[in-house]
Specification:
Blueprint: H1 26-51, H2 61-73, E1 77-79, E2 88-94, E3 100-106, H3 119-139, E4 144-151, H4 159-165, E5 174-176, E6 179-181, E7 187-189, E8 195-204, H5 220-234, E9 243-249, E10 261-270, H6 273-294, E11 297-306, H7 313-326, E12 329-331, H8 343-349, E13 352-353, E14 356-358, H9 370-375, H10 379-401, H11 403-417
Parallel strand pairs: 3-4, 3-5, 5-13, 6-14, 7-12
Antiparallel strand pairs: 1-2, 2-4, 7-14, 8-10, 8-11, 9-10
């Protein structure tokens, strides 16, 4: 499949053939396109500024200040340090009443490799959608409200879940965002993602002199190694769509002391939350067996759970219609299909849409690599980000202008609840 992946050397001017037909409200899409084409330079400067200042989860102070200053400059009402220290919200209201369009901008980077998941692009996409919606509402006199939420700590901190629990999403009718990934040239993906659970495993043993009297000890590191090997063997019997991966942690270890303490951090993933829970039970048995074999005590803590993305079908069908008629290709196999995001939890709680969009990447340079860090700052990647932002803005404006469409979105959300297994 690597031969279909968009590479930096490929001609970005070659686009997939478009479908015939007219999109919903071409006058709206024309305003969106004109607005974002005019703001492209400003948005690229913002993206590169964020990319040049990577910050870890819950530490996104530079990004917080850069985004809030940008939104204030564009006449949004901004609340800094909104419910979390590095979260923020920018709102725009036109007219009286109307519906509420929610949009997310992520900010955090990864340890050691910076913006290797392209959150600089995700961040400016949220900004772009909000600015485009504002321009349409002003130009075409459309009532409603736009809420752009700056969300910290997607990379393991479940920032969106915390904000949801604090009420940040309460007034939104829908919420939109996107994510870059490898994929076919000029493709936008409507794949989902994997449900995920964090599990912390702590082994407690007993120290001893490793040379003089090792039999006096219970080796916690041995327990961790056994657990790791147990999981490695289990992988042969789990489905290929499931993922289990973990690391060792320890302190005060020395080769001449039997380690009495070891910690492991594990992630268990599967296509649905229920499948993940089933696999997690089997993984936990691996941890318990290691404790029994090594004579150590074990404490197993199940941490945060991230749900799979439930793409709202009505929203995704509308996005596909816009993309296929105006911009490029739709796929269901790329995006972040085998990764995870806290936006999955949001889609369990309200109607949401989270397309992936392809950017040019080198071989073995997908998300969470230094190659992707470089890819996330290229001009072609920026252009791809603006394309998906235009399509998302068009979907968002249909939410604000078509009451029957919004009702169908809500009905689809309720129907999807019954399909979750």
């Amino acid at each position: 499949m690597s031969d279909v992946v968009w590479r930096p050397e490929d001609d970005s001017k070659i686009r997939p053939p478009l479908h015939e037909g007219q999109v919903y409200r071409p006058d709206i899409l024309n305003v969106i396109e004109t607005t974002l084409d005019g703001l492209s330079g400003e948005l690229r400067a913002l993206s590169l500024d964020i990319h040049d200042h990577p910050e870890l989860k819950f530490e996104e102070k530079y990004a917080h200040n850069a985004y809030t200053a940008f939104m204030e400059k564009h006449d949004f009402t901004v609340t800094k340090n909104y419910l979390l220290e590095t979260a923020w919200v920018a709102t725009y209201i036109h007219g009286q009443g109307g519906r509420v369009l929610g949009v997310n901008s992520e900010m955090d980077a990864l340890p050691g490799i910076g913006h290797a998941c392209g959150h600089n692009l995700i961040g400016i996409s949220g900004v772009a959608v909000a600015l485009a919606a504002k321009a349409v509402m002003e130009r075409l006199n459309i009532d409603g409200k736009v809420v752009l939420l700056g969300t910290p700590a997607e990379e393991g901190g479940f920032g969106k879940v915390i904000l949801y629990e604090k009420g940040a999403y309460d007034e939104m009718d829908v919420c939109l965002m996107c994510h870059p990934a490898p994929g076919p040239r000029h493709s936008i993906s409507l794949s989902g993602c994997l449900a995920i659970s964090r599990v912390t495993v702590e082994y407690q043993g007993h120290t001893a002199h490793a040379g003089l009297s090792p039999w006096e000890g219970q080796n916690a590191l041995d327990a961790a190694v056994l657990a790791y090997n147990n999981v490695s063997l289990l992988r042969q019997q789990i489905k290929p769509t499931h993922r289990v991966h973990g690391i060792f942690e320890g302190k005060d270890w020395a080769p001449n002391i039997i380690p009495d303490h070891a910690i492991m951090q594990w992630l268990v993933r599967a296509p649905t939350t229920s499948e993940m829970e089933d696999t997690r039970k089997r993984v936990i048995s691996c941890f318990e067996a290691a404790a029994l074999a090594s004579g150590c005590k074990v404490e197993i803590t199940i941490g945060s759970v991230g749900n799979e993305i439930r793409q709202n079908k009505t929203l995704s069908d509308e996005l596909a219609d816009v993309v296929l008629k105006r911009y490029g290709a739709i796929d269901y196999d790329w995006g972040i299909k085998s990764a995870s995001t806290d936006f999955g939890n949001i889609t369990y709680l309200m109607p949401g849409l989270h397309p992936g969009f392809s950017i040019p990447t080198i071989p073995d340079g997908g998300n969470h690599t230094t190659g992707f860090t470089e890819a996330a700052r290229s001009e072609v990647s920026h252009d791809a980000c603006l394309v998906v932002s235009k399509a998302l803005a068009a979907v968002g404006m249909r939410v604000l202008t078509d009451e029957a469409f919004l009702q169908k979105v809500k009905d689809t959300f309720e129907e999807d609840k019954k399909l979750r297994v």
